[in-house]
Amino acid sequence: MLRIRLQRIGKKKSPTYRLIVSERAKDTQAGSLEILGHYNPLRTEKVLEVKADRILHWIGQGAEPSNTVHNILSNAGIIESKTKKKAVRITKKREGKLASKKVAAEEEKKAKAEAKKAAAEAAKAEAEAKKAEEKAAAEAAKVEAEAKKAEEKAAAEAPAEETKAPAEETPAKEATEAPAEEAKA
Hints:
By secondary structure, this protein is an alpha+beta fold. The chain folds into 2 domains: 2-76, CATH 3.30.1320.10; 90-165. It has 3 helices and 5 strands; from the N terminus they run ββββαβαα. A 5-stranded mixed beta sheet has the order 4-3-2-1-5. The protein is rod-shaped and about 120 Å long. The N and C termini lie far apart (150 Å).
Protein backbone atom coordinates (compact mmCIF):
# COMPACT_ATOMS: atom_id res chain seq x y z
CA MET A 1 0.00 0.00 0.00
CA LEU A 2 1.31 3.45 -0.89
CA ARG A 3 1.66 6.25 1.58
CA ILE A 4 2.32 9.99 1.17
CA ARG A 5 4.46 11.05 4.11
CA LEU A 6 7.26 13.29 5.30
CA GLN A 7 10.96 12.52 4.95
CA ARG A 8 13.18 14.45 7.35
CA ILE A 9 16.12 16.29 5.83
CA GLY A 10 18.15 19.29 6.90
CA LYS A 11 20.61 20.06 9.68
CA LYS A 12 20.59 18.98 13.28
CA LYS A 13 17.89 20.90 15.23
CA SER A 14 16.84 22.59 12.00
CA PRO A 15 14.61 20.11 10.19
CA THR A 16 13.03 20.50 6.79
CA TYR A 17 10.91 17.84 5.20
CA ARG A 18 10.20 16.34 1.79
CA LEU A 19 6.76 15.03 0.87
CA ILE A 20 7.33 11.63 -0.70
CA VAL A 21 5.37 8.67 -1.99
CA SER A 22 6.66 5.30 -0.85
CA GLU A 23 5.58 1.86 0.27
CA ARG A 24 4.05 1.91 3.71
CA ALA A 25 6.37 -0.82 5.01
CA LYS A 26 9.56 0.92 3.83
CA ASP A 27 11.56 3.36 5.89
CA THR A 28 11.27 6.96 4.72
CA GLN A 29 15.04 7.09 4.18
CA ALA A 30 15.09 3.84 2.18
CA GLY A 31 13.89 5.38 -1.05
CA SER A 32 10.73 6.75 -2.54
CA LEU A 33 8.75 6.52 -5.74
CA GLU A 34 8.50 10.29 -6.17
CA ILE A 35 9.27 13.54 -4.35
CA LEU A 36 6.07 15.62 -4.21
CA GLY A 37 7.31 18.77 -2.52
CA HIS A 38 9.09 20.43 0.42
CA TYR A 39 7.91 21.65 3.84
CA ASN A 40 9.79 23.92 6.26
CA PRO A 41 7.91 24.45 9.55
CA LEU A 42 10.63 26.52 11.26
CA ARG A 43 10.34 29.69 9.23
CA THR A 44 8.04 32.40 10.54
CA GLU A 45 5.83 31.81 7.54
CA LYS A 46 5.80 28.05 7.11
CA VAL A 47 7.01 27.16 3.63
CA LEU A 48 5.06 24.52 1.72
CA GLU A 49 6.04 23.88 -1.88
CA VAL A 50 4.10 20.98 -3.36
CA LYS A 51 3.09 19.56 -6.71
CA ALA A 52 -0.66 19.57 -6.16
CA ASP A 53 -1.49 17.77 -9.41
CA ARG A 54 0.93 14.92 -8.58
CA ILE A 55 -0.43 14.63 -5.04
CA LEU A 56 -3.97 14.34 -6.37
CA HIS A 57 -2.74 11.81 -8.98
CA TRP A 58 -1.21 9.58 -6.27
CA ILE A 59 -4.28 9.89 -4.05
CA GLY A 60 -6.33 8.83 -7.06
CA GLN A 61 -4.04 5.80 -7.43
CA GLY A 62 -4.82 4.76 -3.84
CA ALA A 63 -2.01 6.38 -1.87
CA GLU A 64 -3.06 7.53 1.58
CA PRO A 65 -1.53 10.61 3.18
CA SER A 66 -0.20 10.17 6.71
CA ASN A 67 -2.11 12.01 9.44
CA THR A 68 0.42 14.86 9.53
CA VAL A 69 0.52 15.19 5.75
CA HIS A 70 -3.29 15.06 5.65
CA ASN A 71 -3.46 17.99 8.10
CA ILE A 72 -0.83 19.98 6.16
CA LEU A 73 -2.56 19.42 2.81
CA SER A 74 -6.02 20.22 4.18
CA ASN A 75 -4.68 23.48 5.71
CA ALA A 76 -3.12 24.35 2.34
CA GLY A 77 -6.44 23.65 0.60
CA ILE A 78 -5.09 20.90 -1.68
CA ILE A 79 -7.44 18.27 -0.29
CA GLU A 80 -10.81 18.96 1.27
CA SER A 81 -11.43 17.73 4.78
CA LYS A 82 -13.62 19.04 7.56
CA THR A 83 -11.73 17.40 10.41
CA LYS A 84 -8.11 17.10 11.34
CA LYS A 85 -6.58 13.73 12.02
CA LYS A 86 -4.62 13.01 15.15
CA ALA A 87 -0.98 12.99 14.14
CA VAL A 88 0.32 11.56 17.41
CA ARG A 89 -0.39 8.09 18.70
CA ILE A 90 -0.85 7.69 22.42
CA THR A 91 -0.02 4.42 24.18
CA LYS A 92 -2.43 2.83 26.63
CA LYS A 93 -0.03 3.54 29.49
CA ARG A 94 0.08 7.22 28.53
CA GLU A 95 -3.72 7.31 28.12
CA GLY A 96 -4.05 6.00 31.69
CA LYS A 97 -1.73 8.71 33.02
CA LEU A 98 -3.58 11.41 31.09
CA ALA A 99 -6.92 10.11 32.37
CA SER A 100 -5.69 10.15 35.97
CA LYS A 101 -4.35 13.68 35.51
CA LYS A 102 -7.68 14.74 34.05
CA VAL A 103 -9.56 13.25 37.00
CA ALA A 104 -7.18 14.95 39.44
CA ALA A 105 -7.62 18.26 37.63
CA GLU A 106 -11.41 17.93 37.78
CA GLU A 107 -11.28 17.13 41.50
CA GLU A 108 -9.01 20.13 42.08
CA LYS A 109 -11.39 22.30 40.10
CA LYS A 110 -14.33 21.09 42.21
CA ALA A 111 -12.37 21.71 45.41
CA LYS A 112 -11.51 25.23 44.28
CA ALA A 113 -15.16 25.87 43.39
CA GLU A 114 -16.28 24.63 46.82
CA ALA A 115 -13.63 26.74 48.55
CA LYS A 116 -14.71 29.76 46.55
CA LYS A 117 -18.34 29.09 47.46
CA ALA A 118 -17.46 28.73 51.15
CA ALA A 119 -15.44 31.95 51.02
CA ALA A 120 -18.38 33.73 49.40
CA GLU A 121 -20.73 32.45 52.11
CA ALA A 122 -18.28 33.52 54.82
CA ALA A 123 -17.98 36.96 53.25
CA LYS A 124 -21.78 37.17 53.08
CA ALA A 125 -22.11 36.18 56.75
CA GLU A 126 -19.40 38.67 57.68
CA ALA A 127 -21.20 41.40 55.74
CA GLU A 128 -24.46 40.55 57.51
CA ALA A 129 -22.73 40.61 60.90
CA LYS A 130 -21.13 43.95 60.05
CA LYS A 131 -24.52 45.28 58.95
CA ALA A 132 -26.12 44.10 62.21
CA GLU A 133 -23.27 45.65 64.20
CA GLU A 134 -23.69 48.95 62.36
CA LYS A 135 -27.44 48.81 62.98
CA ALA A 136 -26.88 48.16 66.70
CA ALA A 137 -24.34 50.98 66.84
CA ALA A 138 -26.80 53.30 65.10
CA GLU A 139 -29.54 52.36 67.58
CA ALA A 140 -27.14 52.87 70.51
CA ALA A 141 -26.17 56.27 69.12
CA LYS A 142 -29.84 57.13 68.73
CA VAL A 143 -30.60 56.10 72.33
CA GLU A 144 -27.54 58.02 73.53
CA ALA A 145 -28.63 61.10 71.58
CA GLU A 146 -32.12 60.87 73.09
CA ALA A 147 -30.62 60.48 76.58
CA LYS A 148 -28.37 63.46 75.98
CA LYS A 149 -31.33 65.54 74.79
CA ALA A 150 -33.31 64.53 77.86
CA GLU A 151 -30.31 65.37 80.06
CA GLU A 152 -29.90 68.75 78.38
CA LYS A 153 -33.61 69.45 78.76
CA ALA A 154 -33.47 68.46 82.41
CA ALA A 155 -30.33 70.56 82.88
CA ALA A 156 -32.00 73.51 81.21
CA GLU A 157 -35.02 73.20 83.53
CA ALA A 158 -32.98 72.46 86.66
CA PRO A 159 -30.90 75.70 86.67
CA ALA A 160 -34.09 77.75 86.47
CA GLU A 161 -35.49 75.97 89.56
CA GLU A 162 -32.16 76.06 91.40
CA THR A 163 -31.82 79.83 90.92
CA LYS A 164 -35.31 80.38 92.30
CA ALA A 165 -35.14 77.98 95.22
CA PRO A 166 -31.85 79.06 96.81
CA ALA A 167 -32.83 82.76 96.65
CA GLU A 168 -36.01 82.11 98.62
CA GLU A 169 -34.47 79.77 101.18
CA THR A 170 -31.37 81.80 101.98
CA PRO A 171 -33.02 84.70 103.84
CA ALA A 172 -35.26 82.38 105.79
CA LYS A 173 -32.38 80.23 106.94
CA GLU A 174 -30.35 83.24 107.96
CA ALA A 175 -33.22 84.56 110.01
CA THR A 176 -33.75 81.28 111.84
CA GLU A 177 -30.09 80.60 112.31
CA ALA A 178 -29.28 83.99 113.80
CA PRO A 179 -31.54 83.65 116.90
CA ALA A 180 -30.19 80.17 117.47
CA GLU A 181 -26.64 81.44 117.53
CA GLU A 182 -27.56 84.24 119.93
CA ALA A 183 -29.21 81.78 122.23
CA LYS A 184 -26.07 79.67 122.44
CA ALA A 185 -23.88 82.61 123.16
